[in-house]
Amino acid sequence: DIVMTQSPDSLAVSLGERATINCKSSRSVLYTSRNKNYLAWYQQKPGQPPKLLIYWASTRESGVPDRFSGSGSGTDFTLTISSLQAEDVALYYCQQYYTTPITFGGGTKVEIK
Amino acid sequence: QVQLQESGPGLLKPSETLSLTCTVSGGSVSSGAYYWSWIRQSPGKRLEWIGYINYSGSTNHNPSLESRITMSVDTSKNQFSLKLSSVTAADTAVYYCARAPSSGHIPWFDPWGQGTLVTVSS
Prior knowledge:
The complex is a heterodimer.
Chain A: E1 4-7, E2 10-13, E3 19-25, E4 30-31, E5 36-37, E6 39-44, E7 51-55, E8 59-60, E9 68-73, E10 76-81, E11 90-96, E12 103-104, E13 108-112
Parallel strand pairs in A: 2-13
Antiparallel strand pairs in A: 1-3, 3-10, 4-5, 6-7, 6-11, 7-8, 9-10, 11-12, 11-13
Chain B: E1 3-7, E2 11-12, E3 18-25, E4 34-41, E5 47-53, E6 59-61, E7 69-74, E8 79-84, E9 93-101, E10 116-120
Parallel strand pairs in B: 2-10
Antiparallel strand pairs in B: 1-3, 3-8, 4-5, 4-9, 5-6, 7-8, 9-10
């Protein structure tokens, strides 16, 4: 199985400041012939299901604010919130869909400092 | 706007079979463009993929659960279902159903149902 490791487990950021979440896969999730990274990011607010933010490592889902961006390739990925808003307080998860079993990171909790 | 809603018993005893149904509205489980999926979230918030099924009944399961899983789709009711046999306390979780695009590759999940808590306790 591909193990997805997120860091940090939690972070506290001031409103308007940048938040950066890291995700590392135990094997590359880059499908080289297609030049695509098979990685998605989700946001989960308290009491709600996860919501898709980004797929193909950097493609924002329709309706997702542009302060959310994804980057990285191969085994190392980052989700960046460029200017943290109060409504961004949530758990964030990465997911690989390069191979089954599909696996998720352990989650990163983002709070307001 | 497609919506998914899980239903099923919330409390089971060890060794019983978990049975959940996901009702889809605003979309059709007969669509060949999607897989219909199950994911669970443990009390510690870890997410675990269970499996997915398409409109024709073709499935893909997590090997860690495969021997206990049965998935089915009912196009007449626009529903799909999960059965997990021989449950233990380790199966206590919030169970989500979700849609996944079947674009020739293993998918991501969007949208998700609200989730239903299943507790296994004697």
